[in-house]
Amino acid sequence: MKYMMTYDLMESMRTTNQWLGATARAMASYPMMSLMPNPFMQLVGAWGEVTERTFERMVAKPDWGISALPTEDGRDHPITVEKIVERPFGDLIHFKIAGRKERKRRVLLVAPMSGHYATLLRKTVISLLPDCEVYITDWHNARDIPVSEGKFDIEDYTLYLVDFMKALGSDIHVIAVCQPAPLALAATAYLAEQDADAQPRSLTLIGGPIDPEANHTEVTDFGRSVTMGQLENTMIQRVGYKYAGVGRLVYPGLLQLASFISMNASTHSEAFSNQIIRAAKGEAQDHDKHNTFYDEYLAVMDMTGEFYLSTVERVFKRREIARNDFTVAGHKVDFGKITTVAVKIVEGEKDDISAPGQCLAALDLLTGLPDSKKASHLEPGAGHYGIFAGKSWRQNIRPLVLEFIDSNAKPPKAKAAKADNVVNL
């Protein structure tokens, strides 16, 4: 399937469905259709409205939509997104709040590169902005990156994190959500050996697959049941001529979306059927609950083929992170070298993506870190999304994370210098 034809075929199908939706909506809105009122035409128009919006959102990068923040002075302060570091495959951005005194807590959110944009963490960002200076990794859609920019695999991702941490300084607190948890841990270990002064003060890992074999899920079972050859031949395609990344090998966002939806097909089918009925009754709104969720959920991005394949092979199949056998740029990182960075693990009891135990495995790897700098929390009844953006995050987990950050805000004490052997005469 590594041909532009298959990539363009999927894009053609998406465009066709968007066109059919727009056509049905336009046809149902003709004035002449009102001469003989017919509930069927209302359903046709509603179907067209929902269908057009659905397929249109699949290729649109969502906006952050965070325009202002009320502060203690009683005023709304405008928020601008500024780029701190610009790189071909992703930027480091900062949510700058005009007119507000800079917060002492400086947080780097490491967003996942797993099919959705960094805006998936919008609610997480909003919840942290009142109390922190928030930075986040903003990964780019691989279809828009020219082949001339080269490859991007999990080692490159790790080195990006290393550069971002260096750019922000050692008083930063890193929070890695889901997929990047093992790579954020690897980046910290890499800094511990290569540039210890650039290490963050604390590292919070939320629902990430440090050891996928610690507790099996459908995701880990899939990773074990297929060969790398099968994945490469069925999942990887070349970007078509429509985009700047023409010819680049990618795991297409549309293919990923099909996988996401298939996991809960009946739930999604019911949600769209109900939305069509609401639209026919005139009850659907532009920013209602359905549209707010699916505008984000349906907005998918391509990831480079080498990143997807190296993640499956090295993190899930060979378990290089779990076995402390991960190599970055020819250097084998050792998690035991992390001795000063406080590490907190957050898991959800009902997480069906990264089940309890998978992320907790990180603490066993930190053999050089005192127990006083290790912490963990298992959130009762919480699923995967809830532990970083839902009710569980807002009410229970966020306060614990901020408390953990505050308790590790001071720089680590310098090791006492060894006394010189001096003979006093």
Structure description:
- It is a single chain.
- It is globular, with a radius of gyration of 24 Å.
- The longest helix has 25 residues, at 4-28.
- Helix 4 (154-168) packs across helix 5 (181-194).
- Strand 1 (68-70) and strand 2 form a beta hairpin.
- With 425 residues, it is of the alpha/beta class.
- The termini are far apart.
- It has helices spanning 4-28, 39-57, 122-128, 154-168, 181-194, 218-225, 228-235, 253-263, 265-281, 289-297, 305-317, 361-365, 391-407; strands spanning 68-70, 76-87, 90-97, 106-110, 133-139, 173-177, 202-206, 237-238, 249-251, 303-304, 327-328, 331-332, 342-348, 374-379.
- It is built from 13 helices and 14 strands.
- The strands form three sheets. A nine-stranded mixed β-sheet has the order 1-2-3-5-4-6-7-13-14, with helices on both faces.
- 40% of the residues lie in helices and 16% in strands.
Annotation keywords:
nine-stranded mixed β-sheet, 425 residues, three-stranded antiparallel β-sheet, disordered C terminus, alpha/beta, 13 helices, 14 strands, globular
Secondary-structure-derived class: alpha/beta
**Overall residue-averaged pLDDT value:** 91
H-E order:
HHEEEEHEHEHEHHEEHHHEHEEEHEH
Helical proportion, percent range: 25-40%
Rg from alpha-carbon coordinates: 24 Å
